[in-house]
Known about the structure:
Helix content: 25-40%
Strand order of the largest sheet: 15-12-14-13-17-18-16-19
Shape: globular
Largest sheet: 8 strands, antiparallel
Bound molecules: flavin-adenine dinucleotide
Oligomer: single chain
Number of helices: 18
Number of domains: 2
Radius of gyration: 23 Å
Amino acid sequence: xxxxxxxxxxxxxxxxxxxxxxxxxxxxxxxxxxxxxxxxxxxxxxxxxxxxxxxxxxxxxxxxxxxxxxxxxxxxxxxxxxxxxxxxxxxxxxxxxxxxxxxxxxxxxxxxxxxxxxxxxxxxxxxxxxxxxxxxxxxxxxxxxxxxxxxxxxxxxxxxxxxxxxxxxxxxxxxxxxxxxxxxxxxxxxxxxxxxxxxxxxxxxxxxxxxxxxxxxxxxxxxxxxxxxxxxxxxxxxxxxxxxxxxxxxxxxxxxxxxxxxxxxxxxxxxxxxxxxxxxxxxxxxxxxxxxxxxxxxxxxxxxxxxxxxxxxxxxxxxxxxxxxxxxxxxxxxxxxxxxxxxxxxxxxxxxxxxxxxxxxxxxxxxxxxxxxxxxxxxxxxxxxxxxxxxxxxxxxxxxxxxxxxxxxxxxxxxxxxxxxxxxxxxxxxxxxxxxxxxxxxxxxxxxxxxxx
Length: 453
Ligand SMILES: Cc1cc2nc3c(=O)[nH]c(=O)nc-3n(C[C@H](O)[C@H](O)[C@H](O)COP(=O)(O)OP(=O)(O)OC[C@H]3O[C@@H](n4cnc5c(N)ncnc54)[C@H](O)[C@@H]3O)c2cc1C
């Protein structure tokens, strides 16, 4: 990047909002060996647009950055360019309690939004595994969700509209404040989940929900995974929990080893949340105790005790990855096949003597397999992952690779869905971002654009 470019950035933003010192550059990378040239700190969408316009003129890469809590999962190491830190976008433009909507800037964290909306007894039901430091923009861009998506859906269910800076520096506004607001393509949902590669999301119009009167967490402990899975089917079918998670014994052990044990008893555990009116929640808990009291060890938690359980749940991946790194395989299944897959993959892990654990958003048929300290080369893992994929396909499931940086491996998974998909992704990216400047290191698109081989 030309040295005069930093000066140009300072001219459009002010010198305090542009940093090219090593400390700032190191804080904004997914790979310490590969740093951006500069980090900028805009304060609103107009400033974001000015930076993108300048970068587009020079053909310089721009990488959106929220709290950086999970950028490494979505971004590859970059070669220079500008990281655009969006945490300065902090305004609440409107909080309309009667219409249960809010128009906010996307650098606000989920914790900040919780506090603001809580004042009106409303909330945005989003609980990404990475926690409440995440920015709203990061969650929209990566379509993050968490255990409560079973009861409440995902961020896309709460988006009424967006303001987005396009890779050309233009600003577009999609949707509006009303529920029915699409007259053309559904641009809001198209741009959400585009991983920062099609636009930078600067504002969002959100639909909010009333806070439930009561929420409790029930931990059910079983001797075998099979029993836990059977109970999970009944729980979802009969009593509609808002979250229904399964943690296997290996994961519970790993969490204990890092000092974050999951409260409760029993070898294999279901962690279940019920929320709603007090009478309804109390009735649900009574029903669960009556049905499973003999088979399972049951403990009920609320408030800070319940919060500690969900905090521990969030650390499951870290418990496996530690300092040396881990790998995440994700399998999505029809709900009724989830138990069969989990018991099969459990046997498979045991047969391979692999250091891996299973955690599932069971209620959504979404299973995570955490693999401890895998070799860096994907090829060395291929047989193990193929084994998991075969078990998933057998149960009608889809296998996804997460924090793997091997583009060829990711491309294969996409190609399996049909030959037209990669060219489509490429055409969309090129149409919106003709110079290829926006998040060119986003995995969502890098595998479509990078040379074959
Ligand atoms: C590939 C991927 C899949 C994920 N899947 C899940 C999941 O299924 N469940 C779950 O709970 N969590 C998931 N996460 C984690 C989720 O990203 C985080 O919970 C949340 O996005 C982190 O917020 P953040 O502010 O730290 O974002 P960051 O980590 O800073 O950014 C995340 C991604 O979003 C982009 N980005 C950030 N802000 C903006 C913006 N305003 N406009 C455009 N792009 C932006 C970044 O370039 C980056 O690619 C996933 C993350 C990634 C990258």
